[in-house]
Amino acid sequence: MTRLFVYGTLLSGEERGGLVAHLPRRSATVRGRLWRVPAGYPALELSEDGQPIQGELLELNDEGILRALDLVEGTSEGLYDRVVVTAQSARGQEQAWVYVMRPPQLRQAGCLPTKITDWRQLSARR
């Protein structure tokens, strides 16, 4: 089973959450830092000494979902990278894909750092 950790617009109830609403999900965290892209959506920078970032682990039964989400997340344009991360859930540590920005991408996109660990604290939808 393939997993995807989501922390922003793909969260349940968020702007793009409907794209993956049919998938089983559960709460999880990864270590890092949340940034705000000027267009109003989040970016995650992974860091082992970062804060536990709140999100959800999605269970994917079709790898085609990842390819479709790659288009949505702009991986071919270099906006986000999809990488493997260790997420912490009630089941323990689990490997999952996640969309992240690396420092050069954060600078190029003009991202601003935040002090939050849960995107829903800034989301306009809440």
Anisotropy-based shape: globular
> What average pLDDT do the residues reach?
94
Assign the CATH topology.
Hypothetical upf0131 protein ytfp
Strand/helix succession: EEEEHEEHE
Strand proportion: 35-45%
Strand order of the largest sheet: 1-4-2-5-6
Give the count of helical stretches: 2
What is the level-2 CATH architecture name? Roll
CATH homolog superfamily: Gamma-glutamyl cyclotransferase-like
Count of the domains? 1
Highest CATH level, the class = Alpha Beta
**What's the story with the biggest beta sheet?**
5 strands, mixed, barrel
- Low-pLDDT windows of residues: none
Strand count: 7
Radius of gyration: 13 Å
The chain-level structural class is mainly beta
User: In percent, how helical is the residue content?
Assistant: 10-25%
Explain what the structure shows.
The structure is a single chain. With 126 residues, this protein is mainly beta. The chain has a single domain, classed as Gamma-glutamyl cyclotransferase-like (Hypothetical upf0131 protein ytfp), CATH 3.10.490. It has two helices and seven strands. It has helices spanning 64-73, 103-109, and strands at residues 2-6, 25-36, 42-46, 51-60, 81-89, 92-100, 112-113. Strands 1-4-2-5-6 form a five-stranded mixed β-barrel. Strand 2 and strand 3 (42-46) form a beta hairpin. The protein is globular, with a radius of gyration of 13 Å.
